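seq as requested:
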Amino acid sequence: MKKILLPVIALAFATPAAAQSIIVVTGPQADSQLLPVAYAELKAGDNRAAVAKLTGASDVDARDPSRLINLGTAYARLGRTEDAAAAYNAAVDSPIRYDLELASGRYVDSRWAARTALANLNEGRPLLALAR
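struct tokens:
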């Protein structure tokens, strides 16, 4: 089952490590609550806090692709390439699958987004981080 998402916001960061990242997050969900996928932490460049939030207790399923992709981005920014790849692979293999809206307004499958993030990591291109 695919989910339709609310409009998204894309941010690019200016620091060298963060310049490799694009964070895409949704606005408030229908219930007016933001999902805790570490958007504020990633936006602020606080990658350690993002990892702590994404690996700790949360209302978001640990297998949720948005959570895993953002975790991969936080790990990549910290230079933890193997952990980043593992998070992206977990998003690819997740039993949870839905469409994500990119900053361009284009909708893509969550597995495609995770594969793209992994390819970007492996090729040193800008990282892709998504939040549902």
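The chain has one domain: 8-130.
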